Amino acid sequence: MSHSKPVHAPQTHFGVVDNCLQVGGIPLHRLAQRVGGTPFFAYDRGLLTGRVAHLRASLPQAIQLHFSVKANPMPALVQHMAGLVDGFDVASASEMRVALDTPMPPASVSFAGPGKTDAELTQAIAAGVVLSLESPNEAVRAARIGDMLGLRPRVLLRINPDFEMKSSGMKMGGGARQFGVDAEEAPALLRKVGALGLDFHGLQIFSGSQSLSVSTIVDAQSSTFELARRLADDAPAPVVLLNIGGGFGIPYFPGEAALDLRPIADNLDAWLPRMRDALPQANVAIELGRYLVGEAGVYVTRVTDRKVSRGQVFLVTDGGMNHQLAASGNLGQVIRKNYPVAIGTRMEAPAGETESVNIVGPLCTPLDILADRMPLPQADVGDLVVVFQSGAYGPSASPSGFLSRPAAAEVLV
Ligand SMILES: *Cc1c(COP(=O)(O)O)cnc(C)c1O
């Protein structure tokens, strides 16, 4: 029996013309000239639009889509998303400012995140965005600041659920967490939110991130609906927004495949009528970051040197982990695996002209790796290396100050 090595899902979102990758219909070498240099991130607006349309067509119509801005806070991209989704979730005052610069109404922006300062609470309340309360202390401070401003803060209660999202890339609920209030403590805090006179909007229950398992997502959504139904009895006002989290993953590594939305949609279809009975005024929203934007972006860096060390080929590029930390394997990976990578200026190799290469960034650390012994077309100085699946958690999640090199440009094409 032969075992074949798992390979990356084919990267078919972007076109190839004359051996060169295209982003938004522009050949990569031309785009590099337009940007004025490398490295850069390019996001394809057609792919962003298409991804939202695909979700809308796949999920029940009643499901609202929220974009989690932390996945990609580039202002032009957030502006583009404002015309496509029903709400934004932000996690800092800076993200809130980017969201408020778009046509998205403040009431459709929610602000989550532990440890909000009085200054951040003040900005959010003044703006009229919905505060996702993470603790009793935040509830009390929000009420006090609301009194000072003469405004009634709009609030959601963020719940740390009493279940875990099993096989997700990142668990963010269940067990002891810094996020939200434990489900067991929620009834008391819900009553307190009423007593404090806060304008209660509903619940946010987020259990995890980056899951490619349909059953994990379906189970988490069902547990979330059950929990919301239980908690509604103690709510000080009707739930008008039930944010059930998201967690939809995208395939990054060999052997992974895209999520099948159909069983998820079927489960939502089954739950929506039950939730209409239990919480008649509730709009049900899912919040997604990487699923909306991750596959629409590439990181592009240029080969500046080609060398051989003890029989292995190294392509050295002008950018790496300082811009695309996740692709280097240093953002939460236990065992380093390659992101999908291509030579954007040599997409197809003539027969016999592929080689096994290491692609490394320019930083003085062995952690700065973009590809570890990957079979790729033979490339040389001047060629452009492309890291796919780079539309989410790129520059804003990378240590751009490390080694004091220039930041990467970002363009929406
Ligand atoms: C980070 C985060 C998200 C987005 O996660 P993705 O994996 O990018 O979809 C959504 N909701 C909350 C509360 C988050 O913290």
Automatic annotation (TrEMBL):
Going by the entry's taxonomy, the superkingdom of the source organism is recorded as Bacteria
Enumerate the UniProt keywords alphabetically.
Answer: Pyridoxal phosphate
Question: Which CDD domains does the record associate with it?
Answer: PLPDE_III_Btrk_like
Q: Which cofactor does it need?
A: pyridoxal 5'-phosphate
Keyword Transferase in annotation: no
Which PROSITE patterns does the UniProt record give?
A: ODR_DC_2_2 (PS00879)
Xref: SUPFAM superfamilies: Alanine racemase C-terminal domain-like, PLP-binding barrel
Q: Which part of the chain is the Orn/DAP/Arg decarboxylase 2 N-terminal domain?
A: 51-293
Q: Which Gene3D superfamilies match?
A: Alanine racemase (3.20.20.10), Lyase, Ornithine Decarboxylase, Chain A, domain 1 (2.40.37.10)
Annotated InterPro entries? Ala_racemase/Decarboxylase_C, DCO2ase_PEP1, De-COase2_CS, De-COase2_N, Orn/DAP/Arg_de-COase, PLP-binding_barrel
Q: Which named protein is this?
A: Diaminopimelate decarboxylase
Organism in which the protein naturally occurs: Noviherbaspirillum suwonense
